[in-house]
Amino acid sequence: MTNCSYETGNNIIAEETGFLKNPGIENEEALVQHGSYTYTAPDGSIITVTYTADEQGFRAQGAHLPTPPPIPAEIQKSLDIIYEQIRLQQEQEAREKAFRKPEESNFAGEENYPSRFKQ
């Protein structure tokens, strides 16, 4: 685990903690860092940013950061329908792949059949 904090001569204050998530587990290890920094903007306002950095990327939060407007209900409904259709199509493709007829599969020919089925 790491822990760090400092303050500069021009009143920037920062602190951060970090740790290794899932140590020793292949393909699941991730460095996780949480922290914040504060500084004075040119207009004199105090700006504070808190953040998390991990396997999902860097995510910052602060009252001064812009946020997207909410998605209108009509558009969200359309997106939900599109995502549901994509999910259904993927399920159908998976079922078709699992239940392929032998002539549609990757059999190389008669040599792949057990001898008891050969004539």
From TrEMBL:
**Region called Disordered, residue ranges:** 92-119
Q: Which GO terms describe its cellular component?
A: chitin-based extracellular matrix
Residue stretches of biased makeup (Basic and acidic residues): 92-104
Which PROSITE patterns does its entry note? CHIT_BIND_RR_1, CHIT_BIND_RR_2
GO MF annotation: an example: structural constituent of chitin-based larval cuticle
Q: Which UniProt keywords apply?
A: Cuticle
This one is known as Uncharacterized protein
| Source organism of this protein record | Coptotermes formosanus
